[in-house]
Design goal:
Elements lengths: L11 E3 L5 E3 L7 E6 L6 H12 L1 H6 L2 E7 L3 H11 L4 E4 L4 H6 L2 E6 L2 E6 L2 E5 L5 E5 L7 H11 L1
Parallel strand pairs: 3-4, 4-5
Antiparallel strand pairs: 1-2, 3-8, 6-7, 8-9
Length: 153
Amino acid sequence: MLETGQPAPDFTLPRDGGGTLTLSEQQPKAVVLFFYPKDDTPGCTKEAIAFTGLESAFAEANTTIIGISKDTAAKHDKFAAKHALSVALVSDAEGDTCERYGTWVEKNMYGRKFMGIERTTFLIDGEGKIAQIWRKVKVPGHADDVLEAARAL
């Protein structure tokens, strides 16, 4: 399980709009890395829209935003177009990055157990170290809380 102060595991993954995105190439900017279960579901849509709405404020705090799920880059393209999302969305279709960040967990819904992505956000400082972690995120107000933490870096 990752903890604050540890180096954030690096990755290079396919992204919406084509190409790839590498975490370490974002330095010296800070990074908000938000893991979410699935494109175009109510909570995930609200979360992505909230981060998109605050993108310029995050940019003023020298912070970039990356959303990550197991959906394909093509599905991310449709999700971004449908909801006018401007934050980067990367595809961890194989689940390796989710595993390394500890967000691929057993979930329980209506008594049925299954594996899925736990909604989790990591704030990574400009040196690539984890500055803060939000686990089991509740969407309302979350993007504002992360922005406050990014401004405090």
